[in-house]
Amino acid sequence: HMGTVEYNSAKEALRSATRTAAREWAPLGITANIICPAAKSASFFRVMSQFPELIAAADAANPMGRMGDCEEDIGPVAVFLASEGSSYVTGNTIFADGGSHINGSSWAPDLSDT
Questions:
Q1: Which amino acids are annotated catalytic?
Q2: Contact 86, 18 (CB under 8 A)
Q3: Architecture of the domain defined by 5-100
Q4: How far is 91 from 77, CA to CA, in rounded Å?
């Protein structure tokens, strides 16, 4: 993610904590999973409104050609994980990112001229 050690370290720590929680809580019937999304949110637009050309660049960098929508693309994943249908799903990372994690692809805009 934009080449930041801090972000990537924190994200991996959350994924590890999720796996640990899943292992510890499974005997209690509690599941733990994490969603790694790539979606345009209100905060995304708040930051990116300063650099409109980067919105198009973010879309182009995604293998599916667009960033996801929080309600249409990410919400259903969260609903599934909260449903009885996912009662046997635990310790997983769900990438709802249009494939942006494939081959370690990462969107890193060039902000040197800004």
A1: 7
A2: no
A3: 3-Layer(aba) Sandwich (3.40)
A4: 15
